[in-house]
Specification:
The structure holds three protein chains of three kinds. Chain A is built from 15 helices and 21 strands. By secondary structure, chain A is α+β, with helices and mostly antiparallel strands. Chain A has three domains: 115 residues, 3-Layer(aba) Sandwich (D-Maltodextrin-Binding Protein, domain 2); 107 residues, Dipeptide-binding Protein, Domain 1 (Dipeptide-binding Protein, domain 1), CATH 3.90.76; 209 residues, Dipeptide-binding Protein, domain 3 (Roll), CATH 3.10.105.10. In chain A, strands 14-18-13-17-15-16 form a six-stranded mixed beta sheet. A five-stranded mixed beta sheet of chain A has the order 8-9-10-1-11, sandwiched between helices. The longest helix of chain A is centred in the first third of the chain and has 18 residues. The radius of gyration of chain A is 24 Å and the shape is globular. Chain B is 72% helix and 0% strand. Chain B has one domain: MetI-like fold (Orthogonal Bundle), CATH 1.10.3720. Chain B starts with 14 loop residues before the first helix and ends in a 6-residue tail after the last helix. In chain B, helix 5 crosses helix 7 and helix 10 packs antiparallel against helix 11. Chain B is mainly alpha-helical. In chain B, 56% of the residues are buried. Chain C is mainly alpha-helical. Chain C has a domain of 189 residues: MetI-like (MetI-like fold, Orthogonal Bundle). Chain C is built from twelve helices and no strands. The longest helix of chain C is centred in the last third of the chain and has 39 residues. Chain C is globular and about 85 Å long. The two termini of chain C are 16 Å apart. The relative contact order of chain C is 0.14. Classes of the chains: A alpha+beta, B mainly alpha, C mainly alpha. Chains in contact: A-B, A-C, B-C. Chains B and C meet through helix 5, helix 6, helix 9, helix 10 and helix 11 of B and helix 1, helix 6, helix 7, helix 10 and helix 11 of C.
């Protein structure tokens, strides 16, 4: 009986395998609504990578290349961009991709109620179809990061016909022009997509079906990879990588992430605070008391990259003149004494998950030596966001998933009116420099502006940058051709399952 | 009808019941299982009280040179993910669990017993109202209620205890109410009413002493449930705050290192299991002993 | 009889109303703003304002409550703030999974509890009785999530017999589905088995004292026949009642069990929703669960009354 059942299952399994190749991918979270203009989660972008092609794409080394666009030219004043578009592209509903579709999409990103893309491309004042496969974009002011934004969700093209027909429900069954089309979704369980036969770049697609399975628990995600239930997973626990390396049936690809992690110090949010940490010397002491390498070793098995700036040391935008300071407990104690304190107590808010708590506990142990008494407040993400906004925190361990253009990692955090400035830092000079940097067309000029800004905001230490994640993608050895990208997306072009 | 009675002194409900209980307690002492339960409970109380002296290390002391080390002579139960001694943390963890068990039940008693008394004694609309609220609380899945309350109040041991206390209260409301109804039907209480005894005095004199035994049994068993509930909340990150050790919190971390450091997952769980089992064995024995019907 | 059932059904209405009040009250006192969470990392103030407006989060809480109640009365549980899916759809999606888990654990529980309870009662005071008691109390005392972790450690990590977790829909691959449900069902079943076994033992003891069993014995019927044909049948009745009351505990247990084994059921749905401040989902699921709990208990009570006419309908127990 048992044997018979086994034979039957094997037959069924073999049958399925022969019929088509399915790649099953384990995600760290359940994506949110699958509408590129409304989407807000990191994992949502991973699913979009198979569904929705973008105007621009990036290479594994983070250079920007055309995708649905064929190229672009910028006017001398930097206010007009002309995009050439690829011909012969069709959406999943069979309608054609053309200049009108691009106009529709950019307008949708700007005007759709609740659009999360609006702020990313708010400098666009007008989009017109200047030819059947050419659009002209007018900007209110020069904006260097625009093309980088169009290589992410803002550049994803949805079918205008389908979007109009579906209205608010579009995100429940998205229709785009990517290599795979949407099949179905069971919330918190799976999202299934299948190969789109009329894909413009169909020669590079060798997989019939992709199933995305949100499995938040890192060890469970890995266990499913080991058992062969999944072919690829994202964001494994760094401490689990030794298991992956010891398993001959598994392979790991990795790429440095575009984001950063650090601690954000509340200096004056909502108003000036009566707290020792408002004294810049105390913050300098805090940084000197930290040991970035120990945090990396203890919490991440040394697999992440330590850093002290919004971009990782490997980035072309890293300011080499401002290297990572070494730990110096004596100097930290001296600074505290100079500021008039023997010991300083503060509350460190961390994410309410084992890893967040672990970072907090290591920081707590490290800075205690220099005279800081840290109490850890593990806070759910939902509450932490509100507390941060209200300024009801001392220090918050938080990071940023990162953007392709450095502007996305810097401007909104360090300018006075920056949308994500929750430290209360406001320096007119820094703001002016960062405003100039996003308008500057010449990379050398931009670098210089970023350097001058960093020389002002880094010593202020309202954000103490600690490390940069390394993105790991363990997969089974029979999955070939997968390449890790720094934006963390899983691209299935050229991927084969043997 | 002029005997003095108080809640804390020996239960009085008539000579016969008093005698059966004495016999019951004696009977219990002769049984091995409840005695074992009591001994283990006392053992954990001693461990919790003497934790600073028993633990070989400070529970929060980190040794970054000894991460996730297997049990050794230096660290008898191994170390955790940031190099803390698992044994010391298990020992200190007893504090949170016992505290959570006892205090949550005290909260549940403080809420449930008065409400039950009022409902049973006054009946009518008051009873209906309390009954509906109790029903609603019971229809609310216990853990979901506790999770929602703990999240609303913010994660901390105190709030976890409040959440568990509220979620456990309905049992005591029903139990007390039932006792009141039973006692009210007794002749001597009817007589007392006839003699003009006032509400509160009547409650205090007759109902509480009679209800004492079943409530004690239920409280003991609820402590067991409360300890599990606290560890569940800590497991979900809604209990004791780091770096203070708690068994549930330790398991929350340990589940990520099952392959690399299985010792992190074993001992906190064994401790929860033993403590809860001890309370259950003791409560169970207490129930048998105090139940006059079950003469073995 | 009919009046009894009707009466019970009517008292359920205020109870459910109180449940709605409680779930709404707790929800709105949770710190954190769903609109801020929904707006994501970018926290665009325009998006936040739009979302607050759209989900009417700026209305006074009583207004929100009444609006929701009106919706519910029309059979609409609202849509998930997070994924935009209708809550009723989400519930229908997750329900079969949790029901399957519950039924399997029930099976495990009954398979352990009924024989153990009968043996413990028949051989009262024996070693078998004591072992059954210890086993039952152990089942009650072991935290679900830890038992789950230990089973994973042993069967998945060490022996590699069973997959650690993950879920395969029953209809997609029944064998794989069962393989994955085995450990979770066992974990959930042990706690339930403990309760059932104790109930079985005590009601069996009571029945064995009764005249008809003694008579059967006196008439020379064989022990096993008496136990199975006469005693067990009668002793099962109270066990069924306990089963109904255990439904709530089963659901609570399912929350953590589903978390440990990452089974996409009801428990996971609601815990994730609490953490994401997905108000509509939490409200919908809790209301649905409470209604189901009340309905099942009502059915059990009525059945009990039907099966055992000796019980006068004196009101609730």
């Amino acid at each position: 009986m048992k044997r018979w059942l086994l034979a039957l299952t094997t037959a069924l399994l073999v049958g399925t395998v022969l019929a088509q190749t399915t790649v099953r991918i384990g995600l760290a979270e359940d994506p949110d609504v699958l509408d590129p203009d409304l989407g807000r989660t990191y994992v949502g972008r991973i699913v979009f990578a198979s569904l929705c092609d973008k105007l621009f794409e990036l290479t594994p080394s983070a250079e920007i290349v055309p995708m649905l666009a064929t190229g672009y030219t910028t006017s001398a004043d930097g206010l007009t961009l002309t995009l050439g578009l690829r011909q012969g592209v069709v959406f999943h509903d069979g309608t054609a991709f053309d200049a009108e579709a691009v106009v529709y999409n950019l307008e949708r990103s700007l005007e759709l109620p609740g659009s999360n893309r609006r702020s990313e491309i708010a400098q666009i004042t007008d989009v017109v179809a200047s030819g059947p496969f050419e659009v002209t974009i007018t900007l209110s002011q020069p904006f260097a990061p625009l093309i980088a934004q169009l290589a992410d969700r803002a550049g994803m093209m949805v079918s205008p016909t389908a979007a109009e027909a579906a209205g608010e429900g579009f995100g429940n069954a998205p229709v785009c022009a990517g290599p795979f089309r949407f099949v179905d979704r069971v919330a918190q369980d799976r999202i299934t997509v299948e190969r789109f036969p009329d894909y413009w770049d169909a020669d590079r697609i060798h997989v019939d079906r992709v199933v995305y399975l949100p499995i938040p628990d890192t060890s469970v995600r890995l266990a499913n990879l080991q058992s062969g239930d999944l072919q690829l997973i994202e964001r494994p626990a760094p401490s689990d990588l030794s298991i992956v390396e010891a398993d001959p049936s598994l392979v790991v690809q990795s790429a440095p992430s575009l984001g950063y992690q650090g601690i954000t110090v509340n200096v004056s949010n909502p108003g000036p605070r009566d707290h020792p940490l408002s004294d810049v010397r105390v913050r300098e002491a805090l940084e000197l008391a930290l040991d970035r390498n120990v945090i990396n070793q203890v919490v991440f098995d040394g697999l992440f990259v330590v850093g002290n700036q919004p971009v990782p040391p490997s980035s072309p935008w890293y300011i080499a003149e401002l290297p990572i300071p070494a730990r110096d407990v004596e100097r930290a104690k001296a600074l505290l004494a100079e500021a008039g304190y023997e010991r300083v107590a503060f509350e460190l808010m961390v994410g309410n998950n084992p890893q967040g708590v672990r970072i907090g506990e290591v920081i707590q142990a490290l800075v205690a030596e220099a005279g800081f008494d840290v109490s850890i407040r593990a806070t759910e993400f939902a509450s932490a966001l509100t507390l941060q906004e209200e300024g009801a925190y001392d220090v918050f361990q938080v990071g940023w998933s990162g953007r392709l253009d450095p502007d996305g990692n810097i401007h909104q955090f360090h300018t006075c009116e920056g949308n994500l400035n929750e430290t209360g830092y406001c320096d007119a000079e820094t703001t002016a420099l960062l405003d100039a940097a996003r308008a500057a067309g010449d990379p050398a000029e931009r670098y210089d502006l970023y350097r001058r800004a960093a020389e002002r905001y880094l010593p202020h230490r309202h954000i103490i940058y600690l490390y940069h994640q390394q993105l790991f993608f363990p997969h089974t050895a029979d999955l070939e051709g997968f390449v890790a990208y720094p934006d963390g997306l899983i691209r299935l072009q050229d991927v084969r399952l043997n | 009808m002029t005997r003095a009675a108080s809640v804390s002194s020996a239960p009085r409900g008539g000579v016969a019941t008093w005698w059966t209980r004495q016999r019951g307690l004696r009977r219990m002492v002769k049984r091995p299982l409840p005695v074992f339960g009591l001994v283990v409970v006392l053992l954990f109380v001693v461990v919790a009280a003497a934790a600073p002296w028993l633990a070989p290390y400070e529970p929060a002391r980190t040794d970054f040179g000894a991460l996730r080390q297997a049990p050794s002579t230096a660290y008898l139960l191994g170390t955790d993910e940031i190099g803390r001694d698992v044994l010391s943390r298990v020992i200190h963890g007893a504090r949170a669990s016992l505290q959570a068990g006892v205090i949550s039940v005290l909260i549940a008693l403080a809420l449930g017993v008065p409400l039950g008394l009022v409902a049973g004694y006054y009946g009518g609309v008051v009873d209906e109202l309390i009954g509906r609220v109790t029903d609603a609380l019971l229809a609310f899945p216990f853990l979901i209620l506790a999770v929602a309350l703990a999240a609303a109040l913010g994660p901390s041991l105190t709030n976890a205890m409040i959440a568990i206390g509220i979620a456990s209260a309905p049992t005591f409301v029903r139990l007390t109410r039932g006792q009141v109804l039973a006692v009210r039907a007794e002749d001597y209480v009817q007589a007392a009413v006839a003699l003009g005894a006032r509400d509160l005095r009547l409650l205090a004199r007759h109902v509480l002493p009679n209800a004492f035994a079943p409530i004690l049994v239920q409280a003991t068993l609820t402590i067991a449930g409360a300890i599990i509930a606290e560890s569940s909340l800590s497991f979900l990150g809604l209990g004791v705050q780091p770096p203070t050790p708690s068994w549930g919190g330790m398991l929350n971390v340990a589940k990520n290192f099952l392959v690399q450091a299985p010792w992190m997952a074993i001992w906190p769980g064994v401790s929860i299991f033993l403590t809860v089992l001890a309370f259950n064995l003791f409560g169970d024995g207490l129930r048998d002993a105090l139940d006059p019907r079950d003469a073995a | 009889m009919f009046r009894f059932a009707l009466n019970r059904a009517l008292t359920a209405i205020p109870t459910l109303l109180i449940v709605t009040l409680m779930v709404f009250g707790i929800q709105r006192s949770l710190p954190g703003d769903p609109a801020t969470i929904l707006a994501g990392e970018q926290k665009d103030p325009e998006v936040i304002a739009f979302l607050r407006e759209r989900y009417r989060l700026d209305d006074p809480v009583p207004v929100q409550y009444l609006a929701w109640l009106g919706q519910v009365a029309r059979g609409d549980l609202g849509t998930s703030l997070r994924t935009n899916q209708p809550v009723s759809e989400l519930i229908l999606e997750k329900l079969p999974v949790t029901i399957e888990l519950a039924l399997l654990s029930l099976l495990v529980a009954v398979a352990i509890a009924i024989p153990a309870g009968v043996v413990a009662a028949v051989r009262k005071g024996s070693l078998a009785d004591h072992s059954a008691t210890v086993f039952a109390l152990s089942g009650l005392s072991v935290p679900n999530f830890w038992l789950g972790i230990m089973l994973i450690l042993f069967f998945s990590v060490q022996l590699r017999w069973l997959p650690a977790s993950g879920f395969v829909p029953l209809l997609e691959d029944p064998i794989e589905n069962l393989r994955r449900m085995l450990m979770p069902a066992f974990v959930l079943g042990t706690g339930l088995a403990a309760v059932l076994m104790r109930q079985m033992r005590s009601s069996m003891l009571e029945v064995l004292q009764q005249d008809f069993v003694r008579t059967a014995h006196a008439k020379g019927a064989r022990g096993i026949v008496v136990i199975v044909r006469h005693a067990m049948r009668n002793a099962l009745l109270p066990v069924v009642t306990v089963l109904g009351l255990q439904l709530g505990a089963l659901l609570s247990g399912a929350v953590l069990t589903e978390q440990v084994f990452t089974i996409p059921g009801f428990g996971k749905l609601v815990v994730d929703a609490v953490f994401n401040r997905d108000y509509a989902v939490v409200q919908g699921v809790v209301l649905f669960t409470a209604a189901a709990y009340i309905a099942i208990n009502l059915v059990v009570d009525v059945l009990y009354a039907v099966l055992n006419p000796k019980i006068a309908f004196l009101g609730r127990g």
